Amino acid sequence: MRVFVTGATGWIGSAVVDELLSAGHEPLGLARSDAAEEALKTKGAAVLRGDLDDLDSLRRGAAAADAVIHLANKHDWGDPAESDRSERAAVGALGDELTGTGRPFVVAAPLSGIAEGRPATEDDPSPAVGPGSDRGGSENLALDYAARGVRTVITRFAPSVHGRGDWGFVNFLTTAARERGVSGYVGDGSAAWSAVHRADAARLVRLGMEHAPAGTRLHAVAEEAVPTRAVAEAIGDALGLPVVSVEPGDAGGHFGFVGGFFASTMTASSVATRRLLSWEPTGPTLLTDIRTGAYTA
């Protein structure tokens, strides 16, 4: 299949492009810069110039493809309202172009905020509804297109999609440890995160595009609950630093914007996902990646 991929040179998107190529698909990657275009061409992927705010480029990409994988997001922590607006507009533009075609529309979504006090499951709907909600309610908006002849597949990603070169949450925690001279965890460190290796996440995206029915929610989760204290201890081992508890009220000052996330439990099950697609993660665990230098090289 010819597959239009937004976020094609991002952390997850670049792995998805590799996965698509290895499986014999033809990725068409959205590129907003010369460097992104060159990276895609070097891999052997086709390129469409544009960005999330260029809705015409998104429509052209969707119209030219047999499937769409939407992974891009502005992730502007300084202006979350703008990120939410952009995300909703992009999903709407892509969904409108795909309406009535029956083509796959794989949309990335977070696991945070899905369930309270227990691991989220694939049956749990997102509480984010409407333009003013988290990510502009894009998950529910995308699922609305399933009733309009689009094979929408939501892929919710663990808060840590890890691996060598990751610039996400664990990278920020590692940077904070270097700067502070200690590897910290919040409170008693009992908060926990789900995790998945980047290669396993990319394979799930491809399998979902190929096989998941319309309206499916998938969970890219290999490890259901990794205690945040264990994450801090692994970072401490990798950097040769002491491990300390940080008071919850000091988390923002110690870790920066990631402190609030590190104090929160964000866990989910992937039992239904594995059963549906026969997906079995094979990559290293989060703690193995940390201890073997994925974040300290």
Automatic annotation (TrEMBL):
<dbReference type="InterPro" id="IPR036291">
    <property type="entry name" value="NAD(P)-bd_dom_sf"/>
</dbReference>
<dbReference type="InterPro" id="IPR051783">
    <property type="entry name" value="NAD(P)-dependent_oxidoreduct"/>
</dbReference>
<protein>
    <submittedName>
        <fullName>SDR family oxidoreductase</fullName>
    </submittedName>
</protein>
<dbReference type="InterPro" id="IPR001509">
    <property type="entry name" value="Epimerase_deHydtase"/>
</dbReference>
<feature type="domain" description="NAD-dependent epimerase/dehydratase">
    <location>
        <begin position="3"/>
        <end position="79"/>
    </location>
</feature>
<feature type="region of interest" description="Disordered">
    <location>
        <begin position="116"/>
        <end position="137"/>
    </location>
</feature>
<dbReference type="Pfam" id="PF01370">
    <property type="entry name" value="Epimerase"/>
</dbReference>
